[in-house]
């Protein structure tokens, strides 16, 4: 308990510039008989640190025990840290107003984006539970999808090989012949694209058309990441690009040993992540069917469609 002789209490408010509403300090400054409360440093930023700790701990726990465990453990860790630190920093001091002889409790108030630090305890705990539950539901959905489409995992592995952030190889395939075909497709497609579109030789022209080719018992599949795919905004330009890709794929597929014009051909074009175009038909077909459902690619990569060695 601290007694301040003389003067009166003036608590911070919006009409008193320089003082923050509700932020009470460790010290009291006396000026001309008026007791002012100095603003407290914003320790609410520590909640961000605790959130990061929770994410790291949750990731480790999730890897060992699943999404639900990871969410609960991570959120719980952040909530516990935040609770005890917020409680320690929020310790108050009892003071006496000399004018009224009444006790006044001055407490430090730490916040982040105007949200009291103590509230983040509930936010972290709730977020951890919700993230854990949503992760568990998503995990079950993925397992169901894997069971329904055995080729999904194989497709994802191949899809990673045309990710510019994960590979430096411009061409990949599941057989030597397929890899050679992927290299030929990427080179030809890049050349055709540059001369078929106005402004084709732009900043994207120096980038490789990353390509993966899968040679299966019943057909050939090409997956290609097209640099600057998002610049093809209207249906006309997207269809024109898909047509060029199909003509290129047909020409290259015919050169693969063992392939015939009756074999199935699939061509999938994507940008950074999303497939904007999937065309299917026979190698000799001039009118492929558009099937932009990604699940169509899962079926093609089914292990039952064994690779030609």
Keywords for this structure?
elongated, single chain, 2 domains, 3-stranded mixed β-sheet, 14 strands, disordered N terminus, 309 residues, 6-stranded mixed β-sheet, alpha/beta, 7 helices, 41% helix
Rg? 32 Å
N-to-C span? 86 Å
Q: What is the number of independent domains?
A: 2
| Side-by-side strand order of the widest sheet | 9-10-11-12-13-14
Apparent shape:
elongated
- What does the main sheet amount to? 6 strands, mixed
Number of strands: 14
Please explain how this structure is put together.
The structure is a single chain. By secondary structure, the chain is an alpha/beta fold. It folds into 2 domains: 43-148, no CATH class; 152-300, no CATH class. It is built from 7 helices and 14 strands. The strands form 4 sheets. It has a 6-stranded mixed sheet with strand order 9-10-11-12-13-14. A 3-stranded mixed sheet has the order 1-5-6, with no helix packed on it. A 3-stranded mixed sheet has the order 2-4-3, with no helix packed on it. Strand 11, helix 6 and strand 12 (264-270) form a beta-alpha-beta unit. The longest helix has 30 residues, at 119-148.
């Amino acid at each position: 308990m601290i007694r301040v002789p003389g003067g009166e209490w003036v608590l911070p408010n919006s009409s008193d510039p320089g003082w923050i509403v509700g932020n009470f300090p460790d010290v009291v400054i006396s000026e001309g008989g008026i007791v002012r409360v100095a603003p407290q440093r914003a320790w609410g930023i520590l909640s961000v640190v605790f959130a990061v700790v929770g994410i790291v701990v949750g990731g480790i726990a999730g890897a060992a025990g699943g999404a639900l465990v990871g969410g609960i453990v991570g959120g719980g860790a952040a909530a516990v840290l935040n609770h005890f630190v917020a409680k320690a920093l929020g310790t108050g001091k009892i003071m006496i107003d000399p004018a009224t002889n009444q006790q006044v409790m001055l407490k430090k108030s730490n916040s982040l984006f105007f949200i009291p630090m103590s509230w983040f305890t509930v936010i972290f705990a709730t977020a951890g539970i919700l993230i854990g539950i949503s992760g568990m539901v998503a995990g079950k959905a993925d397992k169901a999808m894997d069971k329904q489409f055995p080729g999904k995992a194989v497709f994802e592995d191949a899809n990673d090989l045309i990710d510019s952030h994960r590979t430096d190889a411009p061409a990949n395939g599941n057989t030597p012949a397929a890899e050679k075909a992927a290299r030929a497709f990427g080179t030809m497609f890049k050349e055709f694209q540059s001369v078929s579109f106005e402004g084709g030789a732009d900043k994207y022209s120096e980038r490789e058309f990353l390509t993966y080719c899968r040679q299966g018992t019943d057909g050939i599949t090409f997956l290609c990441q097209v640099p600057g795919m998002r610049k093809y905004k209207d249906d006309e330009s997207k269809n024109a690009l898909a047509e060029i890709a199909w003509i290129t794929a047909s020409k290259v597929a015919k050169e693969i040993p063992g392939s015939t014009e009756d074999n199935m051909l699939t061509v999938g074009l994507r940008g950074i992540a999303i497939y904007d175009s999937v065309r299917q038909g026979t190698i000799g077909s001039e009118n492929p069917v558009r099937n932009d459902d990604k699940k169509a690619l899962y079926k093609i990569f089914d292990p039952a469609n064994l690779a030609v060695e």
